[in-house]
Automatic annotation (TrEMBL):
Coiled coil regions in record: 445-472
Organism phylogeny: Bacteria, Pseudomonadati, Bacteroidota, Flavobacteriia, Flavobacteriales
Keyword Coiled coil found: yes
Keywords of this entry: Coiled coil
InterPro entries per record: ClpP/crotonase-like_dom_sf, Tail-specific_protease, Tricorn_C1
Organism annotation: Gelidibacter salicanalis
Name of the protein this chain belongs to: S41 family peptidase
GO MF assignments: serine-type peptidase activity
Domain Tail specific protease intervals: 198-436
Sequence intervals crossing the membrane: none
Keyword Coiled coil found: yes
Origin superkingdom: Bacteria
Pfam families: Peptidase_S41 (PF03572), Tricorn_C1 (PF14684)
GO BP term (any one): proteolysis
Length: 473
C-alpha cells in the first residue's frame, strides 16, 4: 500500500511538473496594445479582434474595430515587437503597457472646427512624405489658414479650407470624404469642368485599340486584362487595373457595369487580407494561362497606358512572370517625425512559368500608383524597354485617417526608391522612348482616338519596329 501511495505521489508530481514546463514554454499571444512605427496608429489586439486608434499630437480616437484579417496577418512577434503583413508590406509595432491618456476608448465625434483643423494639419506635419519635393512649407500653410477657423466655422467652410490645402499638394493620393450633403454644397459653389471621357468611354477605346492589332482578342474580367498575338509573333497584354483581377467565377460576357457590381458583391464578403490574395491569385492564374497558350510569342508588349493602379502585390506578381532572376527591385520607407523609418526591401522572384525575352512596357500619364510600381520595379530588368510618356508620379500607398468629426481622408506617407536611391514621387518615370502624350486625360485619349482613325498606334507600332530590328541583329 505504501509503495502504491509513493507511486501515486510521484505520478502527480510528474504530471504537475510537465504541465508547468509546457506552460512556461508556450509562446505568449500577441494580445495587448501596440504602437505602429511610421503610420500614426495604435492597435489593441484581443485574440482575432483588432481595435485601431488614430493618434496625432492633439488627438487619439478609436477609428474602427474589425477582424484581424481585415487589417493584416500576424507574421511574428516577441515580447516587445510585432510584425503584421499587410499586402506586400510588413508593418512593425512596439508594445505599449497601456493606451495613452489621450486615447478615447469610444468613437465619440467632436465637431469643434479648431480641433479638427489642428488634427488635420498635425497629421500631415507628422506623416506627409513629400513636402520637400513639392517645395511646400507646411508651417506657412498653417499661418495662412489657421486664422480662418474659429468656433463658428461651418462644415462647408471647413471643408472648403481643407480642399484648398489639399489642392496645394497636387497629389493624387490625397483625398477627403465628407457627408454627401456637404460635398454637394461644395460642388454647387464651384464650377467643375466635366471630363469628356467616362470610364466606359475609356474602356471602349482601349478595347478598339487592342482589337485593331489582335486578330483573336481575348478578354478577362470584362476587359481588366485583354490579350492575344499580334504580327511578328509578339504577345500583347493590356492590363487596365491592378484590381478586380480575382477569379470569382462570374459570367464571361458581362459588360463593365454589371461586372463591377457582381465582382464587388463577391469581394466585399472576403476579409481584406484574403481578398488581396484573391487579386494576386487571379493575375497569377491568367498570366500563367497566357504564357502557356502563346508559346509562339517571341516577345511581349505590356500595355499599362490606361492602368490607374490597385494593389502593389499584383504589380510585382506581373513582373515576376517576365523575369528570370531573383533580385532586389525597389525599396520604400515611411515618414516618421524626424526623417524616415528603416526601408523595406522588395524583391523580384521569378514565377515558375515565366517569360524571359524582350518586354515592351507602354506607359502614359494615366499610368499611376500601383501600375507605377511595376514600372519602377522593371528598371531592375534589362529585358524591359519603356515606351510612351512619363507616368503620373504617385507611388506612395495611402495612409487612411479620420478626423475627430468622422470625416475620412488619405495622405501619402511613403517614399519609394529605385536601386540607385532615386525617388520619382511627383515626377513620374519617363520612358526610354518618349512619345508626346498629353498629361491631360481627355487630350491624351483624343490623341489615341485620332491615331486609331488613321489605323495606327504610335506606341504599339514602335514596339513592333524595335522588335523587328532586334530580330534582324
Amino acid at each position: 500500500m505504501k509503495n502504491i501511495k509513493i507511486l501515486l505521489i510521484f505520478t502527480l508530481l510528474f504530471v504537475f511538473c510537465s504541465c508547468n514546463y509546457k506552460i512556461s514554454n508556450e509562446k505568449p499571444k500577441p494580445d495587448g496594445i501596440w504602437k505602429q512605427i511610421g503610420y500614426g496608429n495604435i492597435i489593441e489586439l484581443n485574440d482575432t479582434l483588432i481595435s485601431v486608434y488614430n493618434i496625432s499630437k492633439q488627438d487619439c480616437n478609436l477609428s474602427f474595430k474589425e477582424h484581424i484579417l481585415d487589417f493584416g496577418k500576424v507574421q511574428n512577434y516577441t515580447k516587445d515587437t510585432l510584425t503584421i503583413q499587410h499586402g506586400n508590406d510588413e508593418w512593425l509595432f512596439t508594445r505599449l503597457e497601456k493606451l495613452p491618456n489621450l486615447c478615447k476608448p469610444t468613437s465619440e465625434l467632436n465637431h469643434d472646427p479648431k480641433i479638427n483643423f489642428q488634427v488635420f494639419w498635425d497629421t500631415f506635419n507628422e506623416h506627409y512624405a513629400s513636402f520637400d519635393i513639392k517645395n511646400i512649407d507646411w508651417k506657412e500653410i498653417y499661418k495662412k489658414y489657421e486664422p480662418k477657423v474659429n468656433e463658428n466655422t461651418t462644415d462647408l467652410e471647413l471643408y472648403t479650407i481643407f480642399r484648398e490645402m489639399i489642392e496645394l499638394l497636387n497629389d493624387g493620393h490625397v483625398k477627403m470624404e465628407v457627408p454627401e450633403k456637404i460635398e454637394n454644397e461644395f460642388k454647387n459653389q464651384i464650377e467643375e469642368q466635366e471630363e469628356k471621357y467616362s470610364k466606359l468611354d475609356e474602356f471602349k477605346l482601349n478595347k478598339e485599340i487592342a482589337e485593331f492589332y489582335v486578330d483573336s482578342l481575348r478578354n478577362y474580367n470584362a476587359g481588366m486584362v485583354r490579350y492575344g498575338l499580334i504580327k511578328e509573333n509578339i504577345g500583347y497584354i493590356q492590363i487596365n487595373s491592378m484590381l478586380m483581377l480575382a477569379d470569382y467565377d462570374l459570367e464571361k460576357d458581362l459588360d463593365l457595369r454589371n461586372f463591377y457590381g457582381q465582382y464587388w458583391e463577391k469581394a466585399e464578403n472576403r476579409k481584406d487580407e484574403l481578398q488581396r490574395q484573391d487579386e494576386v491569385d487571379g493575375i497569377n492564374k491568367i498570366l500563367n494561362s497566357i504564357i502557356k497558350n502563346l508559346p509562339q510569342a517571341k516577345s511581349y508588349i505590356l500595355d499599362l497606358r490606361f492602368n490607374g493602379g490597385g494593389k502593389d502585390a499584383v504589380a510585382l506578381d506581373i513582373l515576376n512572370h517576365f523575369s528570370n532572376k531573383e533580385k532586389l527591385a525597389y525599396t520604400k520607407k515611411a515618414r516618421i517625425k524626424k526623417g524616415f523609418a528603416n526601408p523595406q526591401k522588395f524583391k523580384i522572384i521569378p514565377s515558375e512559368n515565366h517569360f524571359s525575352g524582350n518586354v515592351y512596357l507602354l506607359t502614359s500619364h494615366l499610368t499611376a500608383s500601383a501600375s507605377e510600381i511595376l514600372v519602377l520595379a522593371s528598371l531592375a530588368n534589362s529585358n524591359f524597354k519603356r515606351i510612351g510618356s512619363t507616368t503620373e508620379g504617385i507611388f506612395s500607398s495611402t495612409l487612411d485617417k479620420e478626423l475627430p468629426n468622422g470625416w475620412e481622408y488619405e495622405l501619402s506617407n511613403e517614399v519609394y526608391q529605385d536601386l540607385n536611391g532615386k525617388n520619382y514621387e511627383n515626377i513620374g518615370i519617363s520612358a526610354d522612348y518618349q512619345l508626346e502624350y498629353s498629361t491631360n486625360k481627355d487630350i491624351f485619349l483624343d490623341q489615341l482616338s485620332a491615331d486609331l482613325q488613321n489605323k495606327k498606334d504610335k506606341a504599339i507600332d514602335l514596339a513592333i519596329e524595335l522588335e523587328r530590328k532586334q530580330s534582324e541583329k
